[in-house]
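Lab notebook page, bench 4
Experiment: in silico fold of construct C2
Operator: M.H.
Input chain length: 246 residues
Purpose: comparison with the prior construct
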Amino acid sequence: MAIKNVAIKTKPDAAQRVQSGGGVEIYLKRIFALMFGAVAVTALAAWATMATPLWTILFTANGLSVVYYILLFGGLALSIWAQVRAFSFKPSTGAMMLFIYSILMGIVMTPLLLIAVTGNPYTILWAFGIAAVMFACMALFGYKTVKDLSFMGIFLFMGMIGLILVGLASFIWPEMLGGTFGTIVCFIGILIFALFTAYDMQNLKRAYAVLGDGTQKNQLAVLGALHLYISFVAMFQYLLSLLNRN
C-alpha cells in the first residue's frame, strides 16, 4: 500500500541534503535489507509449505479451505494495522511484524506456486527475475527523478482498491478472472505496483530529510520496507499468474 502519512513535501534545500548526505544511504540500505530479508522469509515459508504436508490444510475437496482464508485475511489485517501503527511501535517490533506478515504471505502464495510447479516451474524464475528488474528500475527512477510524483498517489490508491475488490469478487465468481479479463487484470496489477515502487521511493527519500529523530527514521525504514515488499511481491504474483494463464 502507498505511504500516505509520510508523503511530506520538502523544500529544495531539504532535497539537496538528501542527495548529498551520507545518512540517507545507510537509511536506504536498512530499508532494502529488511525488504529482501522479508522476501527471503516468504520464499522459505512457501517452500516449507509445499515440501511438507502443511499444504494440504489449504485445500478441501471443493477448493480452498477456511484455514487459507483465515491466513489470507489475517495477513491483510496485520499489514494494515502495522502501517497505521507504524510510528507507535519500536523498530524491532515493527520488523518482527514484517517478518510474521512475510511468513503468512509465503503460505497463502502456495496455491499459485503449486499451479506453476505442476505446469512449468521455470515460470517462477521468470516471474521473479522480471519482477526484480522492474522493481530495481522503478526504485531507481523514484529515487533519482526530480519530477514530483505525489499526483499519482490518489490514482494508485484507487487502482489498488479496485484490484482488491476484483480479487474479493473472484472468490465468489472464480470464472471472472478467466480469459481476456483476467489477463487485463494481471497487466494492470503489474503496472500499478511498479508505479507504487517509484512513488514510495520518492516519498521515503523526502521523508528522510524532514524527520530529524533517529527513532522515527528507523520506524520509517520498517514501514518503507513493508511498502516496497508489498509492491515487489504483488508484481511477482501478477507476473506469475500472467505466465500461467493457461
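Observations: The longest strand covers residues 59-60. Confidence is low (pLDDT under 50) at residues 1-21.
Next step: discuss at group meeting.
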